[in-house]
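Handout, section 4.2: multi-component inputs.
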Amino acid sequence: MKTAQVPQRSAAAPPPTTGQRPAGRGAPSPFRRKLSHQARAYGFLLGGLLCFALFSWYPAIRAVIIAFQKYTPGSAPEWVGTDNFTQVFQDPEFGAAWRNTLTFTLIALLIGFAVPFVMALVLNELRHARAFFRVVVYLPVMIPPVVSALLWKWFYDPGAGLANEVLSSLHLPTSNWSNGADTALVSLVIVATWANLGGTVLIYLAALQGIPGELYEAAELDGASIFQRIRHVTVPQTRFIILMLMLLQIIATMQVFTEPFVITGGGPENSTVTILYLIYKYAFLYNNFGGACALSVMLLVVLGLFSALYLRLTRTDD
Amino acid sequence: MTQIAPPPREVSPDDLAARKRPAGPAVRTLVSPLALASAKGRAVYWTVFTGVVLAFVLAFLFPVYWMVTGAMKSPDELVQTPPTLFPKSFSLGAYTDSWELMDLPTHLWNTVVQASGAWILQLVFCTAAAYALSKLKPAFGKVILGGILATLMVPAQALVVPKYLTVADLPLIHTSLLNDPLGIWLPAVANAFNLYLLKRFFDQIPRDVLEAAEIDGAGKLRTLWSILLPMSRPVLGVVSIFALVAVWQDFLWPLMVFSDTDKQPISVALVQLSQNISLSVLIAAMVIASIPMVLMFLVFQRHIIAGISAGSTKG
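Output:
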């Protein structure tokens, strides 16, 4: 943070209080004035600070503490060492949840990276109806996630669903979609991608518009084909944004909850239980808050690594 | 918002939107204008253009169309194979049914209360805190800012359980905010991203402007209200949209906070009620639940889109 140009008034040697307003900047401020300045500054800060303390800092510390406790609301917590962790590790759903979460993230990344990038590439070449494309691609993002999930649950429905209807009218084999143990996870990725890719496309589009046209011109003069231009100009020029969005997507998709909760309920055969879903189950189905917090801490550590990397890369000042 | 000083606007979303290139002779992109100008180039261009329009309509508009018209079909027509592209008779019965059967007015109102409260509190507290951190420079201000920024590293969803326990039994005062809009409002204030956005914007405003006001006898609050806020309209707009959308779209947190059915926002109510309600009524309710955010998007789309594209590339 750049604060060097701000004159730091030193606390040392407060001149005698005169009760007069100092002439302006640089006038030595009396100790009293400093104190009231601090009081006022903290007055402005107080509301926000309290909320952060209560709902961000305290829960973060508490997650770690409760992870080592047997905790049921209403009764005194009891230290149990690493019992919660061993219990969670032995849960057959634990392995499934991590596997599903990682698979979901991986597929979501492959689709969620490739599709928006290609879309942005094509949209950037189109000279007409730009506003239309932008609005339409972002529309699903504004539909509440719960509605998107319910909507796709209906599409996937084996009876009244549109998805199989389309497949069979094209004489393609139908699928079990979210009802099949091997297809459920991919079905959820499709929903999440449909619902979220608008934002990614717009960010890529903005990045593409920042590429200087001369680079393409120069590449073309050198005889580079369109694909070579993409490879040697577009990709290197947008590499930073691509990396940023990938990290953000990893962080976001690893916290997937709404789609499995609404569409599949974790099934079939635990094929869509994700970590966050398992945390929810431990807390609200098993009433095991110690286990839920142990899981939260694990998720926190994994996601924290990606977040730290992201923040490190995006830090612009200092 | 009452404005006392005329707002000197620095960068408005309109300026950002003005960056979009006009159709016609444009900045050079991947494909050269020369190649596009040829007969073959034009043919390829219009083929691709048509293809993309069709693909976008099919992928993004059609599901929405299917939802809106699905609710107009009769229950029999809704499950018949093959499905009909247009409803045989447009009936709004499912919409009125869902309005009453699912008690949508209550849930919509709950959502409005939760979103607007979170929005107002966030504006008030985050602006005040950002002002203090940016301009008043309190002792330990850097430590506090560091602590706030550190929360950006902690993905919100991973902390919902301890946050839930805190909200269920607030430390020291031992009250529960469960089933209370405050359980949405107060945690929403702890939004490091929005606070940082505001702080960064305030940082750009020269100190001299504020000091001039103080020499004229304005207090800190008045300086914030009459000088800083009118200058910050663009960023306040962005923060407002982020804040409203976040609460409106959230599902997991309100699902935890509101166990009372009549306190639940529409997103939670939809899922809870989806089991025992007929398909056409549920679809109608889904459409109704989407209308407020989609409308807001259509009204503010230029600002929202400009904000997404500009905010993220600068980062």
